[in-house]
Structure to design on (230 residues):
């Protein structure tokens, strides 16, 4: 149980285009999902907290107009990187909290999406 | 504030050696503590967790004990295998709120 999927797993795009990454909780409902960015040999940097049916909460320094987050259902959150540039190339990871669990302190992570912007 | 400090790697061990990866934390109240593992090219997987002082989390031969007095949650394994080669992250979840705080990760390589 507690499986989170991400699609696509790898994407290469041209500079200036937009890329959408999907994060799905496959066997549980997730009111809250998180989006992280991981740089090489670095820890995860929390970008934003995504809440179903409401606006995402962005961390300081993260451009909300560049990284659009939509959490339209209890099992799906999307991250759209708009007008991508080479510096946006990174490994993006989502996680989800299982709403059904009494103690919702464990995040379940997706496998990540490798974005390369040419 | 909340933060996690993790020993820097990389760590290279021979198969069957003893492993310790140190992790200390700063938090208000009583956070939950976690170890996550990331295999090459993959996302993070929960390895073990502890939710209160003196709890011991264990999984796949790995153990970590929640030490409130030393604010530590060191990861240990008595005999590592080549398949344990991965990056290990220590993390905490505060008593209130859902945000996680991660350490910088420790890369472990186990050689035959």
């Amino acid at each position: 149980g507690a499986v989170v999927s991400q699609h696509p797993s790898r994407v290469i795009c041209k500079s200036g285009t937009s890329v959408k990454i999907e994060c799905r909780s496959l066997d549980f409902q997730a009111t809250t999902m998180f989006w992280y960015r991981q740089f090489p040999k670095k820890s995860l940097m929390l970008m934003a907290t995504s809440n179903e049916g409401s606006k995402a909460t962005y961390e300081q320094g993260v451009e909300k107009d560049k990284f659009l987050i939509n959490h339209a259902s209890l099992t799906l959150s999307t991250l759209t990187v708009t007008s991508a540039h080479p510096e946006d190339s990174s490994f993006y990871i989502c996680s989800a909290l299982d709403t059904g669990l009494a103690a919702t302190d464990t995040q379940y992570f997706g496998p990540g999406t490798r974005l390369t912007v040419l | 504030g909340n933060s996690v400090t993790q020993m820097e790697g990389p760590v290279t061990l021979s198969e069957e050696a003893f492993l310790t990866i140190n992790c200390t934390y700063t938090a208000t109240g009583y956070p939950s503590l976690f170890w996550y593992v990331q295999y090459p090219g993959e996302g993070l997987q929960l390895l073990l967790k502890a939710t209160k002082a003196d709890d011991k989390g264990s999984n796949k031969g790995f153990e970590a004990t929640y030490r409130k007095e030393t604010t530590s949650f060191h990861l240990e394994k008595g005999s590592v295998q080549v398949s344990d080669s991965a990056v290990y992250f220590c993390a905490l979840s505060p008593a209130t709120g859902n945000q996680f705080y991660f350490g910088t990760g420790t890369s472990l390589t186990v050689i035959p």
In short: The radius of gyration of chain A is 14 Å. The CA atoms of residues 30 and 98 of chain A lie 5 Å apart. The mean pLDDT of chain A is 89. The interface with chain B takes residues 4, 6, 32, 34, 41-44, 46, 49, 93, 95, 97, 103-112 of chain A (CB under 8 Å).
